[in-house]
UniProtKB/TrEMBL annotation:
<comment type="subunit">
    <text>Monomer.</text>
</comment>
<feature type="domain" description="Glycosyl-hydrolase 97 C-terminal oligomerisation">
    <location>
        <begin position="598"/>
        <end position="699"/>
    </location>
</feature>
<dbReference type="InterPro" id="IPR052720">
    <property type="entry name" value="Glycosyl_hydrolase_97"/>
</dbReference>
<dbReference type="InterPro" id="IPR029486">
    <property type="entry name" value="GH97_N"/>
</dbReference>
<dbReference type="GO" id="GO:0030246">
    <property type="term" value="F:carbohydrate binding"/>
</dbReference>
<dbReference type="InterPro" id="IPR029483">
    <property type="entry name" value="GH97_C"/>
</dbReference>
<feature type="domain" description="Glycosyl-hydrolase 97 N-terminal">
    <location>
        <begin position="22"/>
        <end position="289"/>
    </location>
</feature>
<dbReference type="Pfam" id="PF14508">
    <property type="entry name" value="GH97_N"/>
</dbReference>
<dbReference type="InterPro" id="IPR019563">
    <property type="entry name" value="GH97_catalytic"/>
</dbReference>
<keyword id="KW-0732">Signal</keyword>
<protein>
    <submittedName>
        <fullName>Glycoside hydrolase family 97 protein</fullName>
    </submittedName>
</protein>
<feature type="domain" description="Glycosyl-hydrolase 97 catalytic">
    <location>
        <begin position="307"/>
        <end position="503"/>
    </location>
</feature>
<dbReference type="Pfam" id="PF14509">
    <property type="entry name" value="GH97_C"/>
</dbReference>
<keyword id="KW-0106">Calcium</keyword>
<dbReference type="InterPro" id="IPR013785">
    <property type="entry name" value="Aldolase_TIM"/>
</dbReference>
<feature type="signal peptide">
    <location>
        <begin position="1"/>
        <end position="19"/>
    </location>
</feature>
<dbReference type="InterPro" id="IPR017853">
    <property type="entry name" value="GH"/>
</dbReference>
Length: 703
């Protein structure tokens, strides 16, 4: 890792200048910080002389001590320049450059003698990060946040890709509208969910993606969310000002802090090119380096699993059809099996055989443990113990069988929102994994949180999610958390956090379907903070083939499902469909087998949020490339310029594309596979069907 760091500062006198300016290393972004006549901290941000954030207030309103809102004077200013190149444990790039100019302002309040705070700004070529810092001091120790008063004053009525503001879920369809239209569209945007709590007719979630009328792409989110509540945004739709709105706890407080401490970074990624938004690594750069000395046990995972058949209703998680069970009291050996329980030894062995045959790393099994009969919606505290299997699931036998096939088993821990119960069993559950050869876990938090009244995105729950990850590291276990808080780049610091859900995934294709533009938006929103376990690869697009009572269908073509392995980045990728379906399409399945899940290089070839994305990636440590292109509900031609390939070399490209008659509604399984020789000078125009796409695998031709 190379690193450059320089610092200079100015000690304040009574005549300290109250306005400060810094620019990004490339000079395109300019930040101005100032303090008003009333002592209110403010900032503004411009990109190539265009307003990104107009003059906006900063501050923290507190409940038990004087608030950090006004009456400030600048007492110290420090300017830093930092430049390093670091290597992620896994990721889209082999190395990442972390280069910024920093302004650190110390502010004192006249109304509270000897009390001060700091606001730290970092300006990168791709955006701005800033946070509040509360140093240890005599006049500040413990305090309660009533609300954070950070503003993002926008320059106009931007086109916006938004989700309803909610303290419990991100599993909504993205709405595309102008800011001024949010209030009118909110009611229809709030669709039913297992747990939800909206807060405002103009409340929206982060990451929030916008496009201005003068061509700026603006993304607002947060980085390094630790010991703090997740931030939503409430829009003042008369003035186009976004105001921070923190997730409360059960009694309405927004956070309990103890100095020294700091807020998460508030982030604004900006460019006049959509491709540069997707290429930004600023949120990762605002997180600390990994806390682990040994990361050799953290490895990307490609897996199959006993899952989609339950999601579609073909099979069940539960062993029987009882409506009330008690762990430790219900004798499952004396109950009547329902005949639909998927997590049985013989069936799981079929998945292990399939994984072994096709070179997959692991097999996920859901519904293996006692308690699934009444797990949801009962506000049940002692809902699972995470170690007791159903009578038809032989843990030891499956461990032995999987090991003989060189396949790992992937654990599933559904908590049903009972966080207290999970923490009570966590050490025992993780040790059970170690004893039985499980190296990764998919955890779930479906339903309302217990303790009752807490929310999924509050400070208390956020601390739990991180506790689960760090505790898992003690056992060398990787974590894929579903229904947890949206990622904020913490996978840099804790790289065993290899996956999250925190958005509508493929499962919703069985619950009525995702919009055709869904995956053309997610990389600009949800994926800004970290990878998503989206679970692509569904080839049987009519769900009623598996379950005659479910008439949902997959809102993509089969070729687009292949492309998602490239466009929806994750070091954790599932082939989510059933083995018997893949066996009918082994030619297309070959791409899923071949595609890498860890990368040396990534090039965003073209992109427009809500419309299309085309990405090329080079496999880690190999001279192999993979390209994915997707479109929304409109037919489109994807443009691939192969100039990312080494000059003077010839490659063979295998193109998996929509058939000429493909259509995501009427003919989604129409695809064609063709081969062609390509060089760095080759240019390809590839047609895509409605909600279609294409995937390309590229290998150098050996001489």
């Amino acid at each position: 890792m190379s690193k450059f760091f320089s610092t200079f500062f100015v000690l304040a006198a009574c005549f300290m200048v109250q306005a400060q300016e810094i620019s990004s290393p490339d000079k395109n972004l300019k930040l101005k910080f100032s303090v008003t006549g009333n002592g209110v901290p403010t900032y503004e941000l411009n990109y190539k002389n265009k307003a990104v954030i107009k003059n906006s207030k900063l501050g923290i309103e507190t409940k038990d001590v004087p608030s950090f809102l006004e009456g400030f004077t600048v007492t110290k200013v420090e300017n830093n320049t930092f430049d390093e190149t670091w290597t992620p444990v896994w990721g889209e790039q082999k190395t990442i450059r972390n280069n910024y100019n920093e302004l650190l302002v110390t502010l004192s309040q006249k109304s509270v003698k000897d009390r001060f705070i700091r606001i730290r700004f970092r300006v990168f070529n791709d955006g701005l990060g800033f946070r509040y810092e509360f140093p240890e001091q005599k006049e500040l120790s413990y305090f309660i946040i009533k609300e954070e008063r950070t503003q993002f004053a926008l320059a106009g009525d931007h086109k916006t890709f938004w989700l309803p503001g909610d303290f419990d879920t991100q599993e909504y369809s993205t709405v595309t509208s102008n800011l001024s239209e949010i209030r009118g569209k909110m009611k229809d945007a709030v669709t039913p969910n297992a747990s939800q709590q909206t807060f405002s007719d103009t409340g929206v979630q982060t990451p929030l993606m916008m496009k201005s009328k003068d061509g700026l792409y603006i993304n607002i989110h947060e980085a390094a969310l630790v010991d703090y509540s997740a931030m939503s945004l409430e829009l003042d739709d008369k003035n186009f000002i976004l105001n921070s709105f923190l997730t409360p706890d059960a009694i309405g407080d927004k956070g309990y802090l103890q100095a020294p401490t700091q807020s998460p970074w508030r982030t604004v990624v900006v460019s006049d090119k959509a491709t540069e938004i997707l290429a930004s690594k600023m949120i990762l750069n605002l997180n600390e380096p990994t806390k682990y000395k040994d990361v050799s046990w953290i490895k990307p995972v490609k897996y199959v699993g006993v899952w989609w058949e339950m999601i579609t209703g073909k099979s069940s998680w539960a062993y029987n059809d009882l409506t009330s069970v008690k762990l430790g009291e219900t004798d499952y050996s004396k109950t009547k099996p329902n005949g639909k329980h998927a997590a049985n030894t013989a069936h799981v062995k079929e998945y292990i055989d399939f994984a072994s045959q096709h070179g997959f790393d692991a097999v996920l099994v859901e519904g293996w443990n006692e308690g699934w009969e009444d797990w949801f919606g009962k506000s049940k505290d002692y809902v699972f113990d995470f170690v007791t299997p159903y009578p038809d699931f032989d843990v030891k036998e499956l461990h032995k069988y999987a090991a003989s096939k060189n396949v790992k088993m992937m654990m599933h821990h559904e908590t049903s929102g009972s966080i207290r119960n999970y923490e009570r069993h966590m050490d025992k559950a993780y040790q059970f994994m170690v004893d039985n050869g499980y190296t990764s876990v998919k955890s779930g938090y479906v339903g309302d949180i217990i303790p009752r009244g807490e929310y999924h995105y509050g400070q208390w729950a956020n601390n739990h999610y991180l506790y689960a990850v760090t505790k898992a590291a003690d056992y060398k276990i990787m974590v894929n958390a579903h229904e947890a808080v949206r990622p904020t780049g913490l996978s840099r610091t804790y790289p065993n956090l290899i996956g999250n859900e925190a958005a509508r995934g493929t499962e919703y294709e069985s619950f009525g379907g995702n919009n055709a533009d869904h995956t053309t938006i997610l990389p600009f929103t949800r994926l800004m903070g970290g990878p998503m376990d989206y679970t692509p690869g569904i080839f049987q697009t009519k769900v009623n083939v598996y379950n005659p009572d479910n008439n949902s269908f997959i809102h993509t073509t089969l070729a687009k499902q292949l492309a998602l392995y490239v466009t929806m980045y994750s070091p954790l990728q599932m082939a989510a469909d059933l083995p018997e379906t893949y066996n009918k399409h082994l030619d297309a399945f070959q791409f899923i087998k071949d595609v890498a899940i860890d990368w040396d290089e990534t090039y965003i070839l073209e992109a427009e949020p809500g419309d299309y994305i085309t990405i090329a990636r080079k496999a880690k440590g190999k001279n192999e490339w993979f390209v994915g292109g997707i479109t929304d509900e409109n037919k489109r031609v994807g443009n691939v310029n192969f100039d990312f390939l080494s000059k003077g070399k010839t490659y063979e490209a295998i193109i998996y594309a929509d058939g000429k008659d493909a259509d995501y509604i009427n003919n989604p399984q129409s695809y064609e596979i063709k081969k062609m020789k390509v060089t760095s000078k080759t240019k390809l125009k590839q047609p895509m069907a409605t909600s279609g796409g294409f995937a390309i695998s590229i290998k150098e031709v050996s001489k």
